[in-house]
Amino acid sequence: MALLFAGIAEGFGLSMLLPLLSLALDNPHGPGIADLQPKSNLEQLVTGFFDTIGLTPTIGVLLTIFVMSILLKAILVLLANKRVGYMVAQVATDLRLALIQALFATRWEYYVHQPIGKFSNAFATEASRAAIAYSYGIKVIALLLHTAVYASIALVLAWKETLFTLCAGVIILYVLRRLVTKAKKAGKRQTNILKAVLALLTDTLQSIKPLRAMARENIAILVLQKETKRLNTAIQREVFSKEALKALQEPLITIFFTFVLYILMVWWEIPLATVLIMVFMLVKILKTLQKAQKEYQSMVIAESAYWSLYSKIEETEKEQEAVIGTHQPSFNNAIHLQNVSFSYDRQPVLRKASLTFPKGSFSAIIGPSGAGKTTIVDLITGLLLPQEGQVWIDDTKMDVVDLKAWRRMIGYVPQETLLLHDTVLANVTLGDTNLTESDVEDALRDAGAWNFVKEMADGLHTVVGERGTRLSGGQRQRITIARALVLKPELLILDEATSALDPDSEVEICRTLLQLSDKLTILAISHQTALLDAADRAYRLEGGIAQIIKDQNVQINCS
Fold this sequence. Notes:
With about 550 residues, the chain is of the alpha/beta class. It has helices at about 1-15, 15-25, 40-55, 60-105, 110, 115-155, 160-175, 175-205, 210-215, 215-265, 270-320, 375-380, 405, 425-430, 435-445, 450-455, 475-485, 505-515, 530-535; strands at about 335-345, 345-360, 360-365, 390-395, 395, 410-415, 490-495, 520-525, 535-540, 545-550.
């Protein structure tokens, strides 16, 4: 709306130019235009306006109104652009939040098969380009509104010539439309290549260690170079289309107005003041249409990013996890898997597996890679649902349990000891403002990490990671255990949490877990002996079948 009023303000100011030029060219010493013979409908309207307000339209008055109108336009444009900037930022924010919301609500089976780079690119690059496309769209609308204002003034001044100019403008835009289409294709190609190359880069960086260890990083470099060159080609095509449009618009408009100026002054013998204003207004109309076409070209270049991001949000929303259970869980007796079968893409992982994990027990699951150990954990946490059989929490089936409430009762420690480049406090709380430093200290004590944390220079506020204090593998793992313990769960799950540790560190972690087993139920997946020896109950998974290999009440000292 502000942009519309800005155009009206400018148009009102420009309408003062014709009587001003008439005064300067026809009667430079006269006091006003009241005594002049009107030469156009516009002059009659301006004269009537001044008669209505009882003001003599002198040169000073006309110049003052003209300047004030332009200043008002500048203020309105400033306010409008500020508002547009805020809206563009909000559009990017809304798209990113929608993507995050949809992504974190997806089914686990869908999520684990998606490349991380695909969503990283969507969050960073595509959201920004989509917001930019939105801003270009607003600019196109604003320029078309300004064109309408200029055309209204020009129609009053000389309607035939104005209609002729508008038709010429449409023809010029139509002639140059192929450059807009080419730019749109280049933008779409750029979006697709960016999506592919960033997904490839993310996956490559995750496996860079084995590549470098085998001196095969040159293969990854060649692939990335190829994709990057393809991206460069798409950008070059985009640049050429934009520059070609800019270069061709100017001469076409100049040729047209040279012809129009000749017709007006030589054939139709229109007064110079009217010709100057008419040409000025017609130039404004075509120049504004020219700008609108440039902004439209920029919009179609970036809009492919919006549709790509929108399709990801729509796709992830369709893959949302089905949360149908409402029963509040209670864990008083045991977790039981009864005749559970599960397959990935028709590849059986579990076959009629039955396992029981009593409350207060320290249980372990061992087995070869691909035997289904992590699948058992995913079934217990509700990330997966059994295709056959049932998972029970006490006497309640998993499919009727409120999964969010159940997961809040679980502490989970993965194999990857991922720490944020932040303080120990932030790594344990993950930004949860409901947790106090006392809660964090208690969790670190339970995880056996407090002794080395309190000796750090800033204690809980010491920054860890590549940009801070370096930690050993065992220390990093203890902090992730503290992260799992800080909310005081009833079930602690360790998914190969000690497989990357040296034997001494594993023994130390084992002792910590033995102390924790007096407070909560522990389920550990491992192929190493220390955790297996510490557990009072153990299962072996092989060929999709679960076999109990240890069941005793007395825990063995793992030292």
